[in-house]
Amino acid sequence: MKKIVVLGLSVALLAGLAGCSEKPADSNSSSASSQKSSQTSQSQSSSETSTNFKVSVDDAIKSYQEAYPDSDITSIDLETSFGKYLYKIEGVDDNKEYEVRVDADTKDVSKEREENLDMEDKDGVKRKEDKLDLENLLSIEEVSDIATKQVGSGKATDWSLDKEMGTTYWEVKVLDGHKETEVKINAQSGEVLESETDD
After folding, report:
1. pLDDT of residue 52
2. How far is Cα of residue 38 from the mean position of the Cα atoms in its chain?
3. Residue of 143, 128, 126, 131 lying closest to 78 (CA atoms)
4. What pLDDT digit, counting tens, does each position of 124-151 carry?
5. What pLDDT is recorded for position 83?
6. How much is the pLDDT for 163?
């Protein structure tokens, strides 16, 4: 009789322990899956907001032109600095070159640099060579979509507008894990000109 009671208690105790050990595992897995889903939604929202700047390229260009109305823009970079995105815009007139930074969220403008051109670049030489074609520019959102589709996945993190051999192009940096790809895109037509990956 004692053996049956002890055996019955042992079975009940084991069943109780087995039941207890499963519950934390279930709650851990459900909290892990809820953490994963919240991380996924966070990464989705961060990739969605990564190109959703309050200040567009056109707005940044206008801010530069208000500061230096008689000059031409030679390059635009949109990059992060201390967690804030800034447009760095460089321009030139017949005698000087300029640099302005425009906050991509607040539109605050700061004049960074103003210096005389070298003798060989004066009198419109550099201006004619480096002036960007700003007509019908594709937006940051549009070139980001083109670049990430070209790469297959990832997130656009840096943008540069430049000129080479008479063509104004966007260079978009796409980060996918540890893989970084730079995609050059015609700034007006959206044609992919070049794609280069650094592992």
Report:
1. 78
2. 21
3. 143
4. 999 999 999 999 999 999 999 999 999 9
5. 86
6. 96
Query: Which one-letter amino acid corresponds to residue 120?
Result: E
pLDDT (average), residues 6-30: 44
Per the structure block, which two tokens stand in for 35?
A: 């953490």
The torsion defined by the Cα of 179, 80, 98 and 68, in degrees rounded to 10, comes to: 120
- Name which of 153, 150, 152, 101 is nearest 171 in CA terms: 150
Please write down the long-range contacts of 135-138, taking CB distance under 8 Å and 24 or more positions apart: 135/188, 136/188, 137/57, 137/58, 137/161, 137/187, 137/188, 138/170, 138/185, 138/187, 138/188, 138/190
